[in-house]
Amino acid sequence: MTIILFGTSPVSTAGSIRESGPFALEAGRLRSRSAVHFREALVKSLLYACGAFSLLVTGEIIVVLSREAWHFFSLPEVDFVEFFTSARWTPLLGAEKHFGVWSLVAGTFLVTLVGMAVALPLGLVTAIYLSEFAPRKVRGILKPTLEILAGIPTVVFGFFALTVITPTLKFFHDGFTVYNAASAGIAVGILCLPIVCSLTEDALRAVPQTLREAASGLGATRFEVAVKVVCPAALSGIISAFLLAIARAVGETMIVALAAGNTPRATLDARQEIQTMTGFMVQMALGDVSNFGAEYSSMYAVAAVLFLMTFALTILGHQIRKKFREQYE
């Protein structure tokens, strides 16, 4: 008996088998794998491009700072030794120009010292509370509230220091001037508080729970566990947070430009008006001086010194993190 199938052919039958059988599944897998590989290659290319762009921008900054700083030191009225050894900074006094960067460095360090005296203890204590003691609901409210501070423009902190912090300080002591290092430092400390708190809390919460349970099993209180076990275990992260906050305070611009003043002075008295390195750069960038004179070129030399300071802090933080880093399994 012969069975005839109408409307079909061997070719069409074989094609339908290939389209609906294991051949179709294998072809789908191949197309899916090729699409995944294409997306991964695209993402890798974008990441490499972003990294290369960052390196290109950093290299261009270094080239510009080096070229302009070399031009500044090649000027006849500039003494290289005086720049790095003197604290007399008077670039705008006509013929009596002196370029001693230590007065600006001292003002920067004074503001940073005041700011870190505010940010580091408060940030560490707050991070320990949020990580070890705060209930979940309280932590859910306090942590976003602290992080809101990081989104406030720095110029707002500058006006806050000038209109609120300075009058408060003058109310308690008459020795404070209108522009002073203390008010600028306190505002910088408030600005750096979210950085210290957030990064330190992340480092504390990264400590394995087994360490806490082991210490509690040996009879330690929650406070002893937090201070004697968790904090030492997260020391590398805590130090990294501290150094990042210090670098942020050293490079702060608008707060010190508004609240610290424009008088270069090497002093430890936070009640006096001072000028920081970034504050001087803002003063030179306002356009009140010619961009062909030594006064304007000194801005690049100061920027180069500031770059070297922040770079040294970054290297120091990396070395400390490598030395004190703890790895847990």
User: Which structural class matches the secondary elements?
Assistant: mainly alpha
Beta-strand residue fraction:
under 5%
- Tell me the CATH architecture of the largest domain: Orthogonal Bundle
Q: Main sheet?
A: 2 strands, antiparallel
The poorly predicted ranges are: 1-19
Strands of the biggest beta sheet: in what spatial order? 1-2
- Total domain count: 2
What topology does this entry show?
Blueprint: H1 10-20, H2 22-73, H3 80-85, E1 89-90, E2 98-99, H4 102-133, H5 136-149, H6 154-172, H7 181-205, H8 209-217, H9 222-233, H10 235-250, H11 254-259, H12 277-285, H13 294-324
Antiparallel strand pairs: 1-2
Helix pairs in contact: 1-2, 2-13, 4-7, 4-10, 5-7, 6-7, 7-10, 8-9, 10-13, 12-13
Could you describe the 3D structure shown?
The protein is mainly alpha-helical. It has a two-stranded antiparallel ribbon. A hairpin with a 7-residue loop joins strand 1 and strand 2. The N terminus is likely disordered.
Fill in the keyword field for this structure.
disordered N terminus, MetI-like fold, single chain, mainly alpha, 13 helices, 329 residues
Task: Give a brief description.
The chain has 329 residues and is an all-alpha fold.
